[in-house]
Amino acid sequence: MKVILLRFGELYLKGHNRNIFENTLIQNIKNSLTGETFSFSKTFGRYVISDYDEKRQDEIVSKLKKVFGLYSLSIAEEVDAQLETIKQVVSNIKIGKQSFKVFVKRADKTFPLSSMELARELGGVVLDNNNESTVDLYNPQREIYVDIRLNHKAYIFDEIIKCQGGLPLGTSGKGLLLLSGGIDSPVAGYLMAKRGMTLEALHFHSYPYTSEQARDKVIELARLLCEYVGEIKLHIVSFARVQEEIHKRCKSEFMITIMRRIMMRVAERLCKANNLGAIITGESLGQVASQTMQSMTVTGNVVKELPVFRPCIAMDKEDIIAVSKDIDTYETSILPYEDCCTVFLPKNPVIKPTIKQAEQEESYLNIDSLVEECINREEVITIRKDS
Ligand code: ATP
Ligand code: MG
Predict the structure, then answer these.
(1) Does residue 91 lie within any of the structural domains?
(2) Are residues 49 and 116 in the same domain?
(3) Do 182 and 112 lie in a common domain?
(4) Which of 295, 341, 342, 351 to mutate for ligand 1's pocket (most ligand atoms within 8 Å of CB)?
(5) Strands 379-384 and 174-178
(6) Which of 162, 194, 226 is the last residue of a domain?
(7) Are 220 and 213 spatial neighbours (Cβ–Cβ below 8 Å)?
(8) What is the pTM of this model?
(9) In whole angstroms, how far apart are CA 36 and each of 29, 40, 47, 89?
């Protein structure tokens, strides 16, 4: 019987959290296959998807590849773990002139042959059926895997397909992603989700300074992230008034610093109101003036009770871009609609602001009422995968 064999990280499957992790992962796997027919079973150390529509195998595999907590999968032939039956399957493998190696794993120690003995025996079967082939133990062109599990089944496959890794979504609480229209913040959201964190998102727009398309772009980015997180509640907040006020009353080089501090305050308020445990941004050290250590000290300083996670902090732009291409947000991110931050961009933003300077500039504003206005005028859209 053809099946999909799933492997998951074993590190976290220890201690009393094990059940929560495992149940969440299994539920997420099943949810990812909503709309497909399949059976699911568990054997120690592996999950098995069977009875699925083989014509939809590629789609099913690509859905499973987006489930955090799965490390790899293989399309395998499942048979009873008996020597003759296994040999029968292996005898059908056609590899022409290519060299090969047989890898045997034997979780079921009651199987009569040792791993080495079985590998040798099966190697002989492959050679008998592929006259021109040779065994190459060090650099084989083809790999043949036989995995004998504790359920007394053997799984025979020729490929190990890498999956996401990470922790099952939903096992690390919920965070608020500050989602701009850029490349970095969707990547930041994805990286935190990969550590098991579900997401809500917050976007600031400056309509009418920014366009309707800029907003649609962010909605589309959230939708693309839903491929991994299923659903995102997106908070959209108008920032034009705040920007006008800062522009009017503060030194222009502090524009971005003060904007960021107000964004962070709004973010923390929304976290409290929506029971979210962390703020997530796409900042990367040294990328621009607002992302120096000093700038992040000054913006982070207004967040009183929550951690600010910046998963891209140590990544080069090229590596961030590589991830954004992998998760398919890149093409949308580079669409040329202006972000709210570019609208009132000062010529010479401060690179090393201090908290004292920022507080001085803010004394010309009514911060509380600006934050309040943002919160009062938020619009919320729930975005789902396939919507
Ligand atoms: P990105 O590519 O994510 O836009 P960036 O390199 O352009 O990042 P900045 O514009 O300095 O960097 O923004 C830094 C971070 O601040 C972003 O990653 C995002 O988390 C947050 N941010 C910036 N602009 C907005 C916005 N309009 N709405 C929500 N969050 C924002
Ligand atoms: Mg940006």
Answers:
(1) yes
(2) yes
(3) no
(4) 341
(5) unpaired
(6) 162
(7) no
(8) 0.94
(9) 12, 12, 17, 27
- Residue range 226-252, pLDDT digits in tens: 999 999 999 999 999 999 999 999 999
138 and 184 both lie in a single domain: no
The predicted pLDDT at position 17 comes to: 78
Non-local CB neighbours of 80 within 8 Å, separated by 6+ positions: 152, 153, 154
- Which is nearest to 165 in space by CA: 91, 305, 306, 69? 69
> In whole angstroms, what is the distance from residue 189 CA to residue 183 CA?
11
Q: Which residues constitute the domain of residue 301?
A: 174-383
| Total structural domains within the chain | 2
The finding on whether 185 has its CB within 6 A of some atom of ligand 1 is yes
**Residue 341 pLDDT > 70, yes or no?**
no
CB of 287 closer than 6 angstroms to any ligand 1 atom: yes
Distance of CA 155 to the CA centre of its chain: 29
For the CA of 178, the nearest ligand: 1
DSSP codes of every residue in 154-200: EEEES--EE---S--TTSS-EEEEE--SSSHHHHHHHHHHHTT-EEE
Q: Are both 112 and 180 inside the same structural domain?
A: no
Residue nearest ligand 1's atom 12 by CA: 283
Considering the domain architecture, whether residues 192 and 297 belong to the same structural domain is answered as yes
Average pLDDT, the chain: 94
Residue 226 lies inside a defined structural domain of this protein? yes
